[in-house]
Structure formats: C-alpha cells, structure tokens
Amino acid sequence: MTETSATTAEERRDQEERLLTTKPVSQSQLIWRRFRRHRLGALGGAIIVILTLLTIFSHFIAPYDYATQRRRFAYAPPTQIHFFDKEGRLTWPFVYGLKRERDPRGRWIYREDRERVYPIKFFVSGDPYLFLWLFPTDIHLFGTGERDLNSPGQIFLFGTDDVGRDLFSRTLIGGWVSLSIGPLALLISLSLAIVFGGISGYYGGGLDVFIQRLIEVLNSFPGLPLLLALAAILPPGLPPAVSFLLIIMILSILGWGGTARALRGLFLALREQEFSLAAKAVGASDARIIFTHLLPNTMSFLIVTATLSIPGLILAEAALSFLGFGIRDPMTSWGQLLNQFTDNTISNLTYHPWLMIPGFFIIVAVLAFNFMGDALRDAVDPFSTKGR
To answer: How far apart are CA 295 and CA 302, in angstroms?
Structure first.
C-alpha cells in the first residue's frame, strides 16, 4: 500500500513536471507556484490574512467598544467560558457572574458567582460603533447582552485594564493602527524612494551626488532617538487621527533612504540594457523609459522590500507607543496597550499577566511578515532552489 502511494505521488510529480515543460506559464504564475511550495511563507501569508480580517471586522467581533470603561471591573482577569453546568451536563456556553472582593492585602480580586448564569448570545445589541468606520450600528458578534456597565454578567476574554476597558476589544481594534501603519508608511516611503532613487540612477551627475549626500545625512541620525525627539514635538492635544497620520509621515520620511540607494543601483544597470537603449533611440521620453521600461523590472525587488520592511515599521510604532510618544488615548494600538507596563511593571507581571497579550500579537504579526517576505524573496529569485 505504501509503495503504491509512493508510486502515485511520483507519477503526479512527473505529470506536473511535464506540464511545466509543455504548457507556457507567465512569470507571475511561476512566482505564485514557488511561493505556495514555501510552507513557512504560506503559513505567514495565511496568518496575515486572518489578522487582517480580524482587524477589518474588529468592531463587530469585539463585544464592547474599545473606550468603554467599567471601573467596577478594573484589572478583572480573563473570563472563563463554561460548557458544562453544575451537574456536569453539556449545555450552551455561558459565563458566571463576577463578584468583587478584597483580599487580606486590600487588593481587589474577582470570583465567580455560581448562582448567577449568563448565557453567551450571538448578534447581540451593545455599544454603538461605525461598522468599517462608515455605517452606524450596535450589533456585536457575541456577548451576554448586559448593557449595564456595573452588571456582573460581563465577558472579558483577555481581561481588563486599569480602568476596566475590555482588553480583547482594545486588542482587536488596536490592530487597525498596528497593521495599517506599516503599509501606509511604506506606501509613502516607497514613493519617495522610487522618485529619488530613479532620478539618481537614471540621470546621474550632479543630481545623483546631491541625492546620495542627502540620504547619507538622513542615515547619519540615530533612528530611535530621532523618532522619540520628533514624536515628542507633537502637541499632546492633537486629535488621535492627526497624531496617527503624523507618525506615519515621520516613519515614511526617515525610511526611504536605503530603498532609494538600492533602486539607484538597479536603475544604473537597467539604463544600459538593450531595451532601454532601444527605447531611447526611437525617441521615447525619459518619463516613459523610467515608468514603462525600467520601473517594472524592479517590481520583484520592491515587493520583497515592502514585505520585509513592514515588520520594522510595526515595531517602530510599537516602540514609540510603548514609550508614550506614539498613539495616545483614547486611540489604541498594540504598542500603546503595552505602555501600561511602564508603571509598576513587576506588579503587573505578577498580578495582571494578561496585559502582555497584545505583545503576543506583535510577535505573531512580525514573524508572519518575515516568513512571507522570505518566501517572496525565494520565489522571485530565479536562481533560488528554496520553495521549489
């Protein structure tokens, strides 16, 4: 049976190889085929898709609004979901009521009130929000249906913070900032890199010298201290959306130099190729040569660079927010959620370890982007043997 299965697998591979040699495929199809065969890269891509979907529908999935405070339940631990009743019989998922007490040290602790049962409901009415930031509604995916902020029938999957805000809701909604700030900053950064790197590599001469010296000046500044100094300049009373956009601008302006230098080298080589010289001979304009002939030949490099740069931007935003210079309340991000550990770190780790959960999301997102970037790099490299 094993030999038959092995023979069948070998025949299938032989058929695929014959198809590869007989049926013409485009470069994008070859890249996609190599990428799919890279297991870690495919896993990273799947994780990114899942995180993106969770973030897009975060307001709907989250049982509460990210800014709603339930001060009676400050530092409440993650709620345990039960599937069996007191007699051990399987039943509809439910939670017990939360009862707050003081321990001998005077610290609030929470216990389950097993006399009060709250079934978990789906598509319940709760805190109002804008679905996809556009459509007003108050329907949430799940919850207990308790609208009273002091009701013991609450569900906190990740626990709560120091003012009783649901950490699960804040983590999901914080993904809007943490996952979007990388691509948005990268879009601006790549645009600057393409313009200055393309001009520097295609024209050369005095423009090349000026742009390269400008890049050297930007790269001479220490990264994190400069980010902290620029972020500290932002007025504390700025609206969260404006602060968010300004942080994107700061990260973009500081991050285009290295990519521009790499593009300059590619343009220096490509401008001497036959297709570029032929286009110039027939009278094509410089803009047409750059954007129609040269730039498309750098797309593989740009895609890989973008994928590998996003983790660094996510970590930069997380570092700024963690240190208190990035996203500020009431807006939230994964780095901003970790900012609570700057006060009473040992106490929080001892008594409130669930506050570290947003850090797990940062780790997973960064690893997923790195795995996908490595897979894309191997897929676009025709001399690579990985992922084949």
So the answer is: 10
What CA–CA distance (Å, rounded) separates 218 from 105?
Answer: 53
**pLDDT > 80? residue 25:** no
Q: Which residues contact 264 (CB under 8 A, 6 or more apart)?
A: 197, 198, 200, 201, 208, 211, 212
Coil, strand or helix at 135: strand
Point out the domain boundary residue: 114, 138, 165.
Answer: 165
Residue 139 near residue 124, CB atoms below 8 Å: yes
Question: In this model, does residue 388 exceed pLDDT 60?
Answer: no
Is position 267 within any domain? yes
Positive/negative CA dihedral, 153, 159, 164, 165: negative
How many Å apart are CA 212 and CA 222, to the nearest integer?
A: 18
Q: E strands within the chain?
A: 82-84, 90-102, 108-119, 121-131, 135-143
For 139-187, the pLDDT digits (tens) are 999 999 888 888 899 999 999 988 889 999 999 998 888 888 888 888 8
CA-only gyration radius of the chain, Å: 27
The single-letter code of the amino acid at 327 is: I
Half-sphere exposure of 274 (CA within 13 A, CB side): 0
Q: Are 167 and 64 in contact (CB under 8 A)?
A: no
Is residue 8 domain-resident?
Answer: no
What total of structural domains would you count in the chain? Answer: 2
Q: At what angle do helices 27-37 and 357-380 cross, to 10 degrees?
A: 130
pLDDT digits (tens, 9 = 90+) for 193-230: 988 988 888 888 888 899 888 888 887 877 667 777 77
Q: Which of 165, 190, 213 is the last residue of a domain?
A: 165
For residues 248-268, give the mean pLDDT: 84
